[in-house]
Amino acid sequence: MRTETPQPIRLSDYRPPAYLIDTVHLTFDLAPNTTRVKARLTIRRNGDHAEPLVLNGEKLKPISVAIDGRELAEAERTIDAEVLTIPNPPAAFELATEVEIDPENNKALDGLYMSGGRFCTQCEAEGFRKITWFADRPDVLARYTVRIEAPKSFQRLLSNGNLMEAGDLPGGRHFAVWNDPFPKPCYLFALVAGELDELVDSLVTMSGRTIDLRIYVDPGMADRATYAMDALKRSMKWDEEAFGREYDLDLFMIVAVRDFNFGAMENKGLNIFNASLLLADPATATDLDYERIESVVAHEYFHNWTGDRITCRDWFQLCLKEGLTVFRDQSFSADMRGEAVQRIKDVKALRARQFAEDQGPLAHPVRPSSYLKIDNFYTATIYEKGAEVIRMLRTLIGPELFRKGMDLYFDRWDGHATTVEEFIRCFAEVSGQDLSDFFAWYEQAGTPRLDLKHAYDAAARTLTLELSQKIDPTPGQPDKRPLPTPVRVGLLDAEGRTLAFQRDGQAMDETVVVLKDAKASVTLTDVDQAPVVSALRGFSAPVVMTTDAAPKDRYVQLAGDPDLFNRWEAGQDLARDLILARAAGKPDEVGEERYAHAVQRALADQAADPAFKALLLALPSESDLALARQPADPAAIHAARDALRQRLSLHLDEDLKRLHIGLQGLGDFSPDAASAGRRALRNAALDLLAANPRSEIAELADGHYRAALNMTDAMGGLSALMQIGGEAFEAALADFFDRWKSEPLVIDKWFALQARDPADSALGRVLGLTAHPAFDQKNPNRLRALVSTFAGFNPARFHDPSGAGYRFLADQILAVDGFNPMTAARLVEPLGGWRRYTPELGALMKAQLQRIVEAPGLSKNVYELASKALA
Ligand code: ARG
Ligand code: ZN
C-alpha cells in the first residue's frame, strides 16, 4: 500500500512561469553510463516578485551550480529528488550547471537513453528534467545551441536546427554544434548519436527554398526508408496547399529507433520515430504498416506548425496540438487514400478505443482539468475525440471560414504557447458566431447518445425529424449540458435514390441539422414519398445514435446510400443487431440469411472500391459488440459473431472464391491505395472463407501463405491458417519464425498474431510465449505485440472464466512498472472496463486492479490509472 496519496495537478492552479529562460547552451559529453551535461541558461525574472527559482531535475547527479560564474555554496541552493531551488536569484543572470546521467540504465526510455547502442532522447512530456535542470513546462520557450562530444564510434551527432560546426577532437573523439533559431519548449529538444545510415533527398518549397531531407536508420536499412521519405515529401506539399504552411528550417531529419514508448515524436527539425512506424519494404511490412507510416510521418511533420511553432501553454492544452494535428493527418490521408474509406477506418478506431474509454472509469474531457501524470493523458480522447471536435467545428462554420480561422490562429499565435480558448476564439472571430456552447465539447467527458425519430406526412409532403441527446454521468461530472451537435442528413427513396427536399424554402439534397439543446424538431418540406432517412452522414459527430428506422431502411442504405460511410454503417448496424440477438439466445435465422444476401449484392457492385468492399465484409469487432449491450458476455459474443461469419462464409462461398482468384496480384508490389485495396479485399475473402473450414479451404490458405510475395499476403495466409488451426498452422508458424528471426519488426507480428488467436488453446500459448527467447519486456514493441494485443484484441481468451487472462496482464503490468512506468500504465486500460462485464468476470478483473493498486513501490503512472479504474 502507498503511504501517501499523490496530489493531482490542476488546470485552475496554472500560474505563468516565475522566471523565463531566453537562451540555452548545452554541452553533452556522451558516455553510456556517465554522460556529462553542462547547461548555460540565460534567465530573467518574469514580473515583480521575490519567488525562488525552482528548476525541475530528476535522477541527476549534481556536479556544479553557478550563477554568473560564481559557484554556489551548498547553503545557497537546495537539491532534492525533484527540484533545484535557488532563493533570491538576481533579476537577470546566467545559470551554469553540470550534471551526470546514466543513459545506459535508463529503461524508462524517457529523457536520454540508449537504444541498439545509440543515444536518443524522448522529452515529451516531462523527460527533459532527466537530462538537466530546467523549467520543464511548455510555456518556457528558449533558443537552443547544443554541442555534442563523443567517441567517433558514435558516428552521427544530431540535434535540433542547423549544423553550425563539426570536427575532430583528440583521443578518437569528435563533436558537432547545432543551433535552433526557433524558440521552443524543452519537450521539443532532441539528441541522437550513433552509427546510422542515411537516406537523403530534398524538396523545393512554395517560396522556392530547397530543404535538405534526411532519414537516419539502422545500418543497412536505408532502402526501407524510401516510403517514409515519399510520405514526407507529400506531407510537406500537402501542408502548403491545404493550410498554406511552409517548412521553416533548411534541414528536416527523421531518426528511427527500436526502443520507443510511443509512435513518434515531433522534436523541432529532428523527429524521432519508433522504427515500426518508419521502416517498410514489401517483404517485411504490410499495407497497414504503409498506411500508418504515411499518416504518422504526416502527423509529426504537421506538428511543425501545430505544436512546434505554436505550442501549448500547459499540458492541459494537449489536445490543442494533438487533436488538431490528428485532424490534419486524417484530412491528408483522406486526400491520399479516398475520403470514405479513410473516414470508415478513422471511425472504427474511434469507436474501438475512444468510445470504450469514454464509457468507463477512465473517461475524461478532451481538455482534462486535473492529472497525476500527464503521460497518462496521451489518450484516444485527447487525440481522436480531439480531432472529431475540430471536424465538427469545420462542419458548423463551413470549410472557408474554418480555413480563415486557422490562418488567423497561425498569424496570431506563431512563436507562442497558447490555450484551447484562444484557438476557438479565432473561429468565433472569423465566423461572427458565439462558440461558447461549443466549448463544452472540450470540457465535458462522455459519449452523447443521440436519438432520432421521423414522421412522414403524406398529405402535407413533410418529414419531421425529432432529435434528442443525453449524456450519461462520467467520473466527477454527474450532470451534463447538451452539446451543439451537427447531424448531416439526406433522404433516399425506396430504391435508394437521392430524394430532394426543401428546408426553409430552399431546395437541397442534404442538410446539416444542428442539435443545440436536449431536444429539437426539424421539418423538411416537399418530400415526395415516405423516405429512408440517412442521418449522421460521414459520422458528422462522435455520438452513439439510435433511430426508429426499420431493418428494411437499413437494407436500402446498404444497397445504395450515396454516403458511403452510411452505406457501410447500415451493414454494421444490421450485423450488430443480428449478433446481439444470437448472443442473447434469440437467433434471427431469416434475418441472417437476408443480411448475407444483401452483403452478396453489395459485393457484386462493380462500381465500388475494393478497399470499401473489404470493410463491408468485416463484422463489428467483439469489443464494439461488448460496448453495445451490457453486461457483456465475451464468450457468447464471440460464438454469435462466429456463427454469423460462418453463415456469410457459406452463403458467399462462390463469390469469395472468385474474388480470391480474381484479385490475385500480378506484377510488382506497389503500396498505393488502389493496390492495397485489392489485397485487402482478397485477404478479407480468404479470412471469411476460413470461418467455414474445410480441407479445401485449409489448402487454399496454405497455398496463399506459401505463394505470398509480400508481407500483407503472408500475414493474410497465416491468419486464415490460424483460424483453421492444426498441423498446417503450426508448420506455417514455425516456418515464419525461422524465415524472419533476424527481423525484429516481423517477429513482433509473429507474437501479435498468436496473441490474437481465439482458439481455446491460445491462452496457454500466450503465457508460454513470455518465456520464448525472443520475448523482451524491455522493448515496448515486443511487449505490446504480445501483451496489449492479447488484452485488447482477443476478448474470447482474455476474458477466460478462470481469470488467468487478467492475472497474466496484471503480472506484466507489475513487472514492467519496475523499470518503465509509462509503458506499464498503458497496459492498464483493458481492466478498466470491469463494470461492463458479467458480474463473475467483473469481480475477477477488479481483483487484479486491487492487486495492482496494493503493490509496493507502484509508480504514479500505474497508480493513477488503476485507482481511477477502481473508483
Ligand atoms: N507528441 C507525440 C505525438 O505526436 C507523442 C508523444 C507521446 N509522449 C507521451 N509522454 N505519451 O503524438
Ligand atoms: Zn502528435
TrEMBL record:
Residues 227-440 form the Peptidase M1 membrane alanine aminopeptidase domain. Pfam families: DUF3458 (PF11940), DUF3458_C (PF17432), Peptidase_M1 (PF01433), Peptidase_M1_N (PF17900). SUPFAM superfamilies: Leukotriene A4 hydrolase N-terminal domain, Metalloproteases ('zincins'), catalytic domain. It catalyses: Release of an N-terminal amino acid, Xaa-|-Yaa- from a peptide, amide or arylamide. Xaa is preferably Ala, but may be most amino acids including Pro (slow action). When a terminal hydrophobic residue is followed by a prolyl residue, the two may be released as an intact Xaa-Pro dipeptide. GO terms for molecular function: alanyl aminopeptidase activity. Its EC number is 3.4.11.2. The keyword Zinc applies. The keyword Oxidoreductase does not apply. Residues 552-871 form the Peptidase M1 alanyl aminopeptidase C-terminal domain. It is an enzyme of class 3 (hydrolase). Keywords: Aminopeptidase, Hydrolase, Metal-binding, Metalloprotease, Protease, Zinc. Residues 26-188 form the Aminopeptidase N-like N-terminal domain. It comes from the Bacteria. Its cofactor is Zn(2+). Residues 446-547 form the Peptidase M1 alanyl aminopeptidase Ig-like fold domain. Belongs to the peptidase M1 family. This is Aminopeptidase N.
